[in-house]
Amino acid sequence: MRKASTTCLVLLLALCLPGLLGAQTSPQDKAHEGFFMRFLLGGGPGKVTIEGTQDLVFKAIGMDFHFQIGKSIGQNFIVFGDLGGFSLSNPDAEYGGQSVSVNDASVSAMGFGGGFTYYMMPANVYFSGSILYCKDTIESSGSKGESEYGLGFFIALGKEWWIGNNWGLGAALFLDTSSLKDQADAYGNQAGIKNFIYGIAFSATMD
Asked: Where does the pLDDT of residue 22 fall: very low under 50, low under 70, confident under 90, or very high at 90 and above?
Protein backbone atom coordinates (compact mmCIF):
# COMPACT_ATOMS: atom_id res chain seq x y z
CA MET A 1 0.00 0.00 0.00
CA ARG A 2 2.88 2.37 0.80
CA LYS A 3 4.40 1.78 -2.66
CA ALA A 4 1.07 2.45 -4.36
CA SER A 5 0.75 5.73 -2.44
CA THR A 6 4.28 6.75 -3.43
CA THR A 7 3.52 5.99 -7.08
CA CYS A 8 0.34 8.08 -6.96
CA LEU A 9 2.28 11.00 -5.45
CA VAL A 10 4.92 10.84 -8.18
CA LEU A 11 2.25 10.78 -10.88
CA LEU A 12 0.41 13.71 -9.31
CA LEU A 13 3.61 15.74 -9.34
CA ALA A 14 4.23 14.77 -12.95
CA LEU A 15 0.82 16.07 -13.97
CA CYS A 16 0.79 19.21 -11.83
CA LEU A 17 4.38 20.44 -11.99
CA PRO A 18 4.19 21.76 -15.57
CA GLY A 19 1.16 23.85 -14.65
CA LEU A 20 2.88 25.22 -11.55
CA LEU A 21 5.80 26.26 -13.72
CA GLY A 22 3.48 27.98 -16.17
CA ALA A 23 4.51 25.82 -19.14
CA GLN A 24 1.37 23.93 -20.03
CA THR A 25 1.61 24.41 -23.78
CA SER A 26 4.55 23.93 -26.09
CA PRO A 27 5.62 26.59 -28.58
CA GLN A 28 4.06 26.14 -32.00
CA ASP A 29 7.46 26.01 -33.70
CA LYS A 30 9.09 23.62 -31.19
CA ALA A 31 10.27 20.29 -32.61
CA HIS A 32 12.16 17.25 -31.35
CA GLU A 33 15.49 17.18 -33.15
CA GLY A 34 19.04 16.07 -32.38
CA PHE A 35 20.17 14.38 -29.15
CA PHE A 36 17.50 12.59 -27.07
CA MET A 37 17.44 11.27 -23.50
CA ARG A 38 14.43 10.11 -21.47
CA PHE A 39 13.88 8.71 -17.98
CA LEU A 40 10.66 6.81 -17.20
CA LEU A 41 9.64 5.72 -13.70
CA GLY A 42 6.23 4.37 -12.77
CA GLY A 43 4.26 1.48 -11.46
CA GLY A 44 1.17 -0.67 -11.64
CA PRO A 45 -0.12 -4.26 -11.39
CA GLY A 46 2.55 -6.81 -12.23
CA LYS A 47 2.43 -10.56 -12.80
CA VAL A 48 5.13 -13.20 -13.39
CA THR A 49 4.02 -16.72 -14.35
CA ILE A 50 6.37 -19.71 -14.28
CA GLU A 51 4.59 -22.27 -16.42
CA GLY A 52 4.45 -25.96 -15.59
CA THR A 53 2.07 -28.79 -14.74
CA GLN A 54 1.02 -26.41 -11.97
CA ASP A 55 1.77 -22.73 -12.71
CA LEU A 56 3.62 -20.68 -10.10
CA VAL A 57 2.33 -17.09 -10.23
CA PHE A 58 3.70 -13.99 -8.51
CA LYS A 59 1.52 -10.85 -8.30
CA ALA A 60 2.18 -7.41 -6.82
CA ILE A 61 2.05 -3.69 -7.48
CA GLY A 62 5.44 -3.27 -9.12
CA MET A 63 7.80 -0.48 -10.10
CA ASP A 64 8.94 -0.08 -13.71
CA PHE A 65 11.81 2.06 -15.04
CA HIS A 66 13.47 2.77 -18.39
CA PHE A 67 16.43 4.87 -19.50
CA GLN A 68 16.46 5.71 -23.21
CA ILE A 69 19.15 7.58 -25.13
CA GLY A 70 19.40 8.24 -28.85
CA LYS A 71 18.98 10.72 -31.69
CA SER A 72 16.33 11.97 -34.08
CA ILE A 73 16.49 10.66 -37.65
CA GLY A 74 13.70 12.96 -38.79
CA GLN A 75 11.66 15.76 -37.31
CA ASN A 76 9.93 14.39 -34.18
CA PHE A 77 11.01 10.79 -34.98
CA ILE A 78 13.68 9.37 -32.68
CA VAL A 79 15.54 6.07 -32.39
CA PHE A 80 17.22 5.09 -29.13
CA GLY A 81 18.86 2.46 -27.02
CA ASP A 82 16.77 1.30 -24.08
CA LEU A 83 17.79 -0.11 -20.69
CA GLY A 84 15.04 -0.96 -18.24
CA GLY A 85 12.97 -3.41 -16.29
CA PHE A 86 10.65 -3.87 -13.34
CA SER A 87 10.57 -5.21 -9.81
CA LEU A 88 7.90 -6.92 -7.67
CA SER A 89 8.71 -6.84 -3.96
CA ASN A 90 7.06 -9.23 -1.49
CA PRO A 91 4.57 -10.48 -4.10
CA ASP A 92 1.59 -12.71 -3.43
CA ALA A 93 2.22 -16.23 -4.74
CA GLU A 94 -0.07 -18.91 -6.12
CA TYR A 95 0.76 -22.49 -7.08
CA GLY A 96 -1.85 -24.37 -9.06
CA GLY A 97 -4.37 -21.64 -8.27
CA GLN A 98 -3.84 -21.94 -4.50
CA SER A 99 -2.14 -19.29 -2.36
CA VAL A 100 1.27 -20.26 -1.00
CA SER A 101 3.59 -18.56 1.47
CA VAL A 102 6.91 -17.09 0.32
CA ASN A 103 9.43 -15.37 2.58
CA ASP A 104 11.36 -12.20 1.70
CA ALA A 105 10.62 -12.73 -1.99
CA SER A 106 11.31 -10.43 -4.91
CA VAL A 107 10.97 -10.88 -8.64
CA SER A 108 12.72 -8.57 -11.06
CA ALA A 109 13.36 -8.32 -14.78
CA MET A 110 16.13 -6.45 -16.58
CA GLY A 111 16.55 -5.90 -20.30
CA PHE A 112 18.36 -3.93 -22.96
CA GLY A 113 17.58 -3.20 -26.59
CA GLY A 114 16.35 -0.44 -28.84
CA GLY A 115 13.25 1.37 -29.98
CA PHE A 116 11.68 4.50 -31.37
CA THR A 117 9.54 7.46 -30.33
CA TYR A 118 7.28 9.57 -32.50
CA TYR A 119 5.95 12.92 -31.26
CA MET A 120 2.70 14.41 -32.51
CA MET A 121 3.25 18.16 -32.44
CA PRO A 122 2.38 20.75 -31.25
CA ALA A 123 0.44 18.66 -28.70
CA ASN A 124 3.73 17.01 -27.60
CA VAL A 125 1.98 13.64 -27.37
CA TYR A 126 4.20 10.65 -28.15
CA PHE A 127 4.08 6.95 -28.89
CA SER A 128 7.12 4.85 -28.01
CA GLY A 129 8.01 1.21 -28.57
CA SER A 130 11.06 -0.92 -27.70
CA ILE A 131 12.27 -4.48 -28.28
CA LEU A 132 14.35 -5.80 -25.39
CA TYR A 133 16.57 -8.75 -24.54
CA CYS A 134 15.46 -9.63 -20.98
CA LYS A 135 16.30 -11.84 -18.01
CA ASP A 136 14.41 -12.53 -14.75
CA THR A 137 15.86 -12.84 -11.25
CA ILE A 138 13.87 -14.44 -8.42
CA GLU A 139 15.00 -14.27 -4.79
CA SER A 140 13.40 -15.88 -1.73
CA SER A 141 14.66 -16.79 1.74
CA GLY A 142 18.25 -16.02 0.79
CA SER A 143 18.28 -18.13 -2.38
CA LYS A 144 18.49 -16.71 -5.88
CA GLY A 145 17.61 -18.00 -9.34
CA GLU A 146 17.94 -16.54 -12.82
CA SER A 147 16.21 -17.28 -16.11
CA GLU A 148 17.65 -17.50 -19.59
CA TYR A 149 17.43 -14.38 -21.75
CA GLY A 150 14.28 -13.88 -23.80
CA LEU A 151 12.39 -11.36 -25.89
CA GLY A 152 10.48 -8.47 -24.37
CA PHE A 153 8.47 -5.44 -25.49
CA PHE A 154 7.89 -2.04 -23.91
CA ILE A 155 5.30 0.40 -25.26
CA ALA A 156 4.19 3.79 -23.93
CA LEU A 157 1.71 6.50 -24.87
CA GLY A 158 2.45 9.79 -23.18
CA LYS A 159 2.08 13.55 -23.00
CA GLU A 160 4.80 16.02 -22.03
CA TRP A 161 4.94 19.74 -21.23
CA TRP A 162 7.96 21.93 -21.97
CA ILE A 163 9.71 23.39 -18.90
CA GLY A 164 12.54 24.95 -20.90
CA ASN A 165 14.17 24.91 -24.32
CA ASN A 166 15.37 21.32 -23.95
CA TRP A 167 13.43 19.68 -21.12
CA GLY A 168 9.93 18.21 -20.97
CA LEU A 169 8.07 16.57 -18.08
CA GLY A 170 4.98 14.43 -18.38
CA ALA A 171 3.18 11.16 -17.80
CA ALA A 172 2.56 8.05 -19.88
CA LEU A 173 0.54 4.86 -19.94
CA PHE A 174 2.88 1.89 -20.36
CA LEU A 175 2.93 -1.87 -20.95
CA ASP A 176 6.03 -3.98 -20.26
CA THR A 177 5.89 -7.66 -21.23
CA SER A 178 8.32 -10.47 -22.01
CA SER A 179 8.55 -14.22 -22.62
CA LEU A 180 11.53 -16.17 -21.26
CA LYS A 181 12.76 -19.66 -20.41
CA ASP A 182 13.88 -20.80 -16.98
CA GLN A 183 17.29 -22.45 -16.52
CA ALA A 184 17.22 -26.11 -17.56
CA ASP A 185 16.87 -28.68 -14.78
CA ALA A 186 18.94 -31.88 -14.45
CA TYR A 187 16.80 -33.53 -17.16
CA GLY A 188 17.11 -30.64 -19.61
CA ASN A 189 13.56 -29.41 -19.05
CA GLN A 190 12.92 -25.66 -19.19
CA ALA A 191 9.79 -23.96 -17.87
CA GLY A 192 8.39 -20.97 -19.71
CA ILE A 193 8.18 -17.62 -17.92
CA LYS A 194 5.73 -14.83 -18.79
CA ASN A 195 6.17 -11.27 -17.47
CA PHE A 196 3.46 -8.63 -17.58
CA ILE A 197 3.19 -5.20 -15.95
CA TYR A 198 1.24 -2.10 -16.92
CA GLY A 199 0.47 1.27 -15.36
CA ILE A 200 1.35 4.96 -15.40
CA ALA A 201 4.87 6.39 -15.49
CA PHE A 202 6.43 9.79 -14.93
CA SER A 203 8.70 10.90 -17.78
CA ALA A 204 11.52 13.43 -18.02
CA THR A 205 12.96 14.06 -21.48
CA MET A 206 15.87 16.11 -22.74
CA ASP A 207 16.31 16.75 -26.47
From this structure: very low
Domains of the chain listed by start with CATH number: 2-24+35-206 (2.40.160.20)
pLDDT confidence of residue 144: 85
Instruction: Give the distance between the most distant pair of CA atoms in the chain.
Output: 63
**Residues whose CB is less than 8 angstroms from the CB of residue 189 and which lie 6 or more positions away in sequence, other chains included:** none
* Secondary element (H or E) of residue 15: helix 2-20
Q: Would the CA dihedral through 135, 200, 140, 178 be positive or negative?
A: negative
Give the three-class secondary structure for 13: helix
Q: Are 85 and 65 in contact (CB under 8 A)?
A: yes
Q: Is the pTM of this model over 0.85?
A: no
pLDDT (0 to 100) of residue 165: 82
Residue 90 to residue 162: CA distance in whole angstroms = 37
Integer angstrom CA distances of residue 77 from 25, 116, 118, 176, 207? 20, 7, 5, 21, 12
Query: What is the rounded CA–CA span in Å between residue 68 and residue 165?
Result: 19
Question: Given the DSSP bridges, would you call strands 192-206 and 35-50 parallel, antiparallel or unpaired?
Answer: antiparallel
